Structures are given as structure tokens and as C-alpha cells.
Amino acid sequence: MAANGPVTIYTANSTTGGILRTAVVSVRDIYRYRHLIWTLFSRDFKAQFKQSLLGYFWTALGPLFGVVSFVFLNYAGILNPGNTSVPYPVYAFVGTSLWGFLTSSISGMSSGLNAQSELIMRTNIPKIALAASALANIVYGILVNLVLIVLFLVLFGVRVSLASFFFPFLAMPLIVLGVGIGLAVSVIGIIAKDISRLVSQFFSLMMLLTPVIFVSTHITSPWLHRLILANPLTYLIELPRSVLVGQPSPYWPQYAAASAVCVVVLLGGVKIFDMVQDLVAERL
After folding, report:
1. What confidence tens digit (pLDDT) does each residue in 236-255 have?
2. 279 lies in which domain range?
3. Structure pTM?
């Protein structure tokens, strides 16, 4: 009688499950490796400014350069954004800063794994923790933007109210959306190299359909105006900016619905990351 072969016992994988369970496990891994995340951020942050003429000033110059062209076109009479409730430089800078919160979150998270490829190949550190090392850089850039926004408000004499202090919290859905998309792109982009470029081009187009540098009510084309109002990003830009400068906004219900979508996208991004992450090491 042949000897019995080895017995294999299959057990449930504690890292799999529904979207909420995956999110809880991911948060737990990020917290567990928080000191490593901070070390990686410090290393990468300092490295990007080495042998740089202006060093850390680039973090502030980037947002300023991003809005200069629109302000110039406005003063030259080439760009007619409509009547703004505050001086146009303030209106445009707040809008481009909010848009930058979204795009920088996407680009930062999507490149997180590529930046830590050596650690992925040599260690068993959860990949979500390595991807999260980009979060610190994103948060730093956002804080610099907030300081610049305050300087713009002071420089142009824009009065604010107590409600204006809620601006950072109202901008959070854009960051949540960017992190969710960036997490999905970070793993899918390693398998399909052109996905990052497609996402970047898509949001470049979406900026033209979002009132970042123009007033939505200034659009005279009926179909284009309807398209802008159907864009959830419209409300994620319009409402925080209105609250910041003390203007009433009728878009609270739309903003709440768009914010809920952002949370769903984040949870979906975490789940996609969890499902595809095991293929990352093979493709790096």
C-alpha cells in the first residue's frame, strides 16, 4: 500500500475580503510602518533638491509658475474668464491650487512603487506602506500651497470669515480622489506602462471642463455649460473656493454627492491595489 502523501491544509487569507476589510488592513500596515514611511519621505525629499540652485524654493515656485500664464493672458485681454468675486489672480491661484491637490496626489501615489522598486524586490514590507511614503511629500506640497493662498489673500486685501478656516477640510475630497486614483494607477501602470500617460492626458482635458480658471456661469454655450455642471469636479473646486473668499454657494448637495464618490473611488483604489500588488515584483 502506497504511503500517504503530504497533506495540504488551505486556510482563509486574512488579507483578503471585502473593500472595507481591505481598507482596514491597509491602514493597519501603514500605521505599523509609519517610521519607515517617514524615513523614506525624508530621503526622497532631500534627494530631489540636491544640486539644485533654488533648492526647497521650487516647492513654492511650482504653484506660482502654474498660475502666472493665466494671469498674464487675462491682463493681456486674451483670456476672458468672466466676472470673479475676488481679484482674478486670487481666483485663479486658488483654483489651480485646488486642481494641483488632485493632480499631485495622483502623480505622487502613482509613482510611489516605482520609487521604491529596490525595497519591493529585497524586502517583504507591505507594498501599501511603500506607496504611502509618497503621502508625506503630497501633504508637504499641499501645506506650502495653503501658505501661498494665505499670502495671496493678504496681498490682494481679500477679507475672510470664520467659515474660510474650513477651506482645508473642504479641499480634502480632491486629495482623497487623487490618492484613490493614484493607488490604482501605481499597480496597473507597472503592468500597462501607458496607463499613467492616459490618466495624465485625461485630467489635462478635464481641467478645460472644470471652472478652475474661469467662471462657470460665463460659459454661453448651452451644451458646454451643461457638460460643466455634469462634471463632479466642478463642485469640488467651486464650493471650497467660494467658502474661502466668503461667497455663498448653491452647490452643497452636489458637493456632498461628489465627496461621497471620492470616498468610493479611494476604497476602490485600495482594493485594486490589494488585488494587483502581487504582480508588481514580477514586472519591475
Report:
1. 999 999 999 888 888 999 99
2. 19-283
3. 0.83
